[in-house]
Amino acid sequence: MTPIKTLLTVCVLVCGFAHAQSYPDKSITLVIPFAAGGPTDVVARMMAIPMGKSLGQPVVVENVNGAGGTIGATKVARSAPNGYTIFLHHMGMSTAPALYKKLNFDPLTDFEYIGQVLDVPMTLIARKDIPANNLQELIAYIKANEQKVSLADAGLGAVSNLCGLMFRSAIGVNINTIPYKGTGPAMNDLLGGQVDIMCDQTTQTVPMIKDGRVKVFGVTTLKRLAALPNVPTLDEQGLKGFEVKVWHGMYAPKGTPAPVLQKINTALRFAMADETIKQRMTELSSDIPAADKMTADGLKDHLRAEINKWGPIIRKAGVSAD
Description:
Helix content is 44%, strand content 19%. It is globular and about 70 Å long. By secondary structure, it is α/β, with parallel strands linked by helices. Strands 1, 2, 3, 4, 5, 6, 7, 8 and 9 form a nine-stranded mixed beta sheet that branches. The protein has two domains: 27-120 and 245-317, D-Maltodextrin-Binding Protein, domain 2 (3-Layer(aba) Sandwich); 121-219, Periplasmic binding protein-like II (D-Maltodextrin-Binding Protein, domain 2, 3-Layer(aba) Sandwich).
């Protein structure tokens, strides 16, 4: 290494250390790539207060929605790597590379990783009068009525859409898909009998399942849920390896100094240990990741695995957001 390069390297390290020592000295922006009021936004706003308490500065949520979360992701990827812009996104970070032919960021190279945040399970449900009482009967019904059965979702790239694609792929039937502008209106039509089946998050389905307003045919985790102990997993019913959880991760722009990332990670862990948040997550049938998942390596390894999982499913289905 030449003397000039050595001097530059030392300067970068010293400047980075100095920045980390004073960080943060102003508010931090937490970008959410979806509209206010959605599941990811709700999680972010719960976390923002205890994270701000840990960091000693306010954490301000900014909604930058559109294009399946890619607009917000692009903004963060192009932001200054100083720790004052961070990012919370769900599993859409892993599906975007397959869904979008032209993507303005690379999830694996354009971000620093802070840690996983939250896992929300899903359920496979149907209108309450569908003539099937278990998963095998449902699959038989779908295969016998392939041209008539309808699968509701929240539109291309939505988690409900991805879960539906995975279910279609697992049973080998190209079910007619009906896209909605959200799972709210999709659920209304399912309750009214206008559509037959859908995948949706437990935060919405658990009360309806318990009230008998919909039929449930399985949960999308590999273990049964405490909130629905009598509902079998799809995996144990024969769809081996079927696992869909709406996982969330926290990121920063590439080049954010390691000491700054560590301070943000400490704030993340502080927030997820907050008793109010833990209680609320239990009520929503959501899981806070294990300690080894709330790390940079834990998040990056999970993201890479999810990209490898969803890419073939999306490409096989022939869907594209372009």
